[in-house]
Amino acid sequence: MSTSAMSRLRDKIITADVFTAAQKLRKKNLFLREDGTPLEFTLVNIKNWCKNDFEVINQLRINTNNSHQSCVGKA
Question: Is 57 or 18 the better-scoring residue by pLDDT?
Answer without folding.
Answer: 18
